[in-house]
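Hello,

Following up on my earlier ticket. Below are the two sequence lines again, exactly as submitted.
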Amino acid sequence: MGGDAVNVVNEVIAWLTDPAQWSGPDGIPVRTLQHLYYSLLATAIAGAIALPIGVYIGHTGRGALIAVNLTNLGRAIPSLGIIILMFTLVGFGLVPVLVALIALAVPPIVTNSYIGVRSVDRDVRDAAEGMGMRGRQVLWQVELPVATPLIMAGIRTSAVQVVATATLAAYVGLGGLGRYLIDGLSQRDLPQVVGGAILVAVLSLLTELVLGRVQTLVVPRGLAGQGADAAVRAKVEKAA
Amino acid sequence: MTDGPAPVLAAELIRWSWVGDHLDDIRGYLVQHIELTGLALLLGLLLSFPLALAAVQWPRLYGPILGFTGVLFTIPSLALFILLIPFTGLQIQTALIGLTIYTLLILVRNIVEGLRGVDPDVREAAQAMGYTRARQLFQVELPLALPVIIAGVRIATVTTIGLVTVTALIGWGGLGRLFIDGFTLNFTTPIVVGIVLSALLAFAADLLLVGLQYRLTPWARSGGG
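Thanks for your patience. The regenerated structure is below:
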């Protein structure tokens, strides 16, 4: 591969705008939906696993060391290796990819929801208890709403990584936008490869943008507009 | 679950005789992994220092610099490597440029935050003692910013070690080559060896950087700081 860059740009544009690319089971719409399906499923399962753990650790303070270091540990695990290992063990199907994507998505959600609940102002917690709230009420009515920005930030971080990594699903025979990359590489079809790479990059950036928007929408009104966003961002970045 | 290879028994995840027979290959992959990681970090630091210094000097630049490196960071790694192919082919530069790009966001952010976190009193004291701008930067501000900078280098290092494995799909990959070998042979041993070694490499590099920080910041050891 290689060759004249200008020529490649023209061929990529031709590939992306070819109507044949936009219909049928190999078409861009179907591939995009498959990609989103894997990503949504993995992120939802990861959230169902990680949120209770993170919130529990934040509420009780037990296991804090694990919660803080989980994200760093997670970074050391190579997703491609997990996908291929699981594929070798259980064969073709959604499972290998889901396992790798869930393993990728759980740590940031645990760490962020832990920090979110933990960093609720002591005075706020005391005030809630002073008003006669019990542990569970404090959790549901005070800690969780106040922790929403950080929890959402964790989900967003995970979801963006999952969408990016779901590209590798194609390596073990599944669909998604990664197909264009993997097939194009093996067929030495550069326009397909680059066109696919552009599509994946755009989908990741859109995920980041859309979830960023969702994040500002779900933040309770009482928390918004007092510089909370900047403070939260600083905390999230420290955590990440 | 109809096509694809038949499931193998999980009982034999690792066959030690294979590992013994392939020690030279494994060592070669490990060396390539370390070289790619080290070079990417070196290039990343060389690029992010001027960017960070510019962002500290002209705060208006910080937003755009973070935004740009952030967008690059969001692009899936395989996609980024592949987008570089028209320019650099399947040479090592493609892997290296991609890996370097991913370190930028983390490094720039931490260098800037580290330098901004320096106590203004300390800075004024240095000025009052007649330090030039350059001397103040290298002898006062950078040493004080070191813990935050090294924290960034640690994250960048561990992230890069993971990303190197993806470059196996464009012909490089260090230990990631073992994943491809295992996939081709339908054999778990190389895959397990690759996962374990790259995770161990990440931990070892992280510990090394913690040790480096401990040695470079002797003032932080006493007084519980």
